[in-house]
Specification:
The structure is a single chain. With 236 residues, the chain is α+β, with helices and mostly antiparallel strands. The chain has one domain (1-236): Histidine kinase-like ATPase, C-terminal domain (Heat Shock Protein 90, 2-Layer Sandwich), CATH 3.30.565.10. The chain contains 6 helices and 7 strands, in the order ααβαββαββααββ. The chain has a 5-stranded mixed sheet, covered by helices on one side. A two-stranded antiparallel sheet has the order 1-3. The chain is globular and about 60 Å long.
């Protein structure tokens, strides 16, 4: 799906996405220089944006390398609970800056799933960045609350990120995948902007024999992937 022309389109979307935090850093630095000021809060904000941009670059480079067949991810036992908690911690300051409350919900204690620790973390961070940054960019602050959640289904363990009362359909996501890099906002029902992080997350997850799908839990909807439990380890 992402080879050749499609991976080039994804690269274009990634470039547009990365311009946002880097532009904020540049403008803030320029303003501080013009005013002769360097406030502690400004420095913290600039540090956050710079850290976010560097993290995104690492995630996106991994996704593009996978799309081009330049690398592979080996599957290993990974704890969904610890991965979701770690991701929420890494996204905390970004979420606070955008007025979004993050919550982790894992319905039960599960055996590790077969995934790749580095790949899964990159996919979750890419997904989270796009959903969180939808606040204050679309003008409607669509998310007050986002949940990183995991639950058991007959097909495996499902993990993803969900927002409040989002009325999205599976066909919208399939259409958005086809429009990646061709439309400025291919998936407006879920996030603002190019959606590059969503598509990169899907690229990474596909390399682990799964993919992002529209998912629902309670009164929330979002994107999630299904993982098979590892038979090598169990929780004690």
């Amino acid at each position: 799906m992402y080879a050749g022309k499609d991976s080039t389109a994804t690269l274009q979307a990634v470039a547009e996405q990365l311009k946002v935090p880097l532009t904020i850093i540049a403008r803030q630095a320029e303003l501080n220089q013009a005013l002769g000021q360097t406030e502690a809060d400004d420095l913290r904000a600039m540090h956050l944006q710079a850290t976010t941009a560097l993290t995104l670059i690492d995630c996106y480079l991994l996704g593009l390398a996978l799309a081009q067949g330049q690398t592979q991810l080996e599957l290993e036992p990974v704890s969904l609970s610890s991965m979701l908690t770690s991701t929420a911690h890494d996204l905390y300051y970004l979420a606070r800056q955008h007025g979004v409350e993050l919550e982790v919900q894992v319905a039960g204690r599960y055996a590790p799933v077969m995934a790749n620790r580095r790949g899964l973390k990159a996919a979750l961070l890419s997904l989270g960045y796009d959903l969180i940054s939808s606040n204050n960019t679309s003008g409607d602050n669509r998310y007050r609350h986002l949940t990183l959640a995991a639950h058991r289904t007959p097909h495996g363990l499902v993990a993803g990120m969900y927002g409040e009362y989002q009325d999205i359909e599976a066909h919208e996501w399939r259409t958005a995948l086809k429009l990646c890099g061709q439309a400025g906002q291919p998936f407006t029902s879920l996030c603002a902007g190019s959606g590059a992080g969503l598509f990169v997350a899907d690229i990474i997850l596909r390399s682990m024999t799964t993919q992002l799908r529209v998912g629902r839990r309670q009164k929330e909807a979002g994107l999630a992937a299904t993982f098979l439990p590892s038979q090598q380890l169990v929780f004690i």
